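Hey, resending since the last one bounced:
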Amino acid sequence: MKPRITLKKIAKEFGVSISTVSKALKDSHEISEETRGKIKAFADYYNYKPNNLALQLRNQKTSVIGVIIPEIVHHFFSTVINGIEKYANEKGYNVMVCLSNESYEKEVSNFTVLTNGSVDGLIVSVARETQENQIYKHFEALIKDDFPLVLFDRTIDEIQCDKVIVDDVGGAYKAVDHLVKIGSKRIALITTQDYITVGSLRKEGYLKALVSNDITIDENLIYKIDDNKDLHEQIRKVINVKNPPDAILAVNEIYAAIALKIVQELGLVVPNDIAIIGFTSGLISEYTSPPLTSVEQHGDLMGRSAAELLINRIESADSNEFQKEVISTNLKIRKSTLSVN
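The structure tokens again:
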């Protein structure tokens, strides 16, 4: 059986735009007779048939973009939505937000609802269960139909689309480097399971910083949290040990805030006994006692960047190369760590 052919694939074959292919197949005299003949022959050979759903979506512009996020509890995702909405509104678009609640089935359901003509494109951060199961058929279907898609934060390497990510490796490196500079030697990492891409990348930055500072890697100081189980009990095991760490890097602010609470319950003092840093500088980090030093991810900027990539993709007739934007991080020093002398 011959492979399914799309306008995008024909355009790539001849090194022209999708618009040129479309005009050639409609026998437009804007395209040279030679080019028209080649494109039509190629399309006939592969039994090209227009995708009626894709054509319908293109011809019935909604000026609405869809956003699917794993959860709303994290401050980071709310700031991303804020950035998306601000940019989209500036460009005349409205935003429809759905939650996957970390569920593969809910994510697929959201795709079905949003891509039936409700929105012109999607911005998605992948659900935990989707990453764990590595089932990406719903994403692959969108790509085949040339449906505008941007992935952010949690992305999938195999899916060819525009992406916006945080410099997770660099952010974790900066955090650990700061802890080393204030005298920490036994730095624990509270992270996610490895299939969560952001957790895996932050672990990579943690390990790089230890090696760079000539600190021996101790696998016993790396704790992978299962979010389906009691977080408090799991994180307590990081601290309530015979030889506790003198510093903790947590890959999100919820883990960091729970660690802070447990340290205090055990009668230890932050930052004198244990220094703590978390990812995401949200309200939780700002109003804990003491306030948490945090890796700032700039969710608002990530949202604007994702919205800009998506709207450019929606409004562009040409098939541009996919882009991957990386948002830099910085460290917000608060009282959960000591100042560097």
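The chain has a mean pLDDT of 92.

Sorry for the duplicate.
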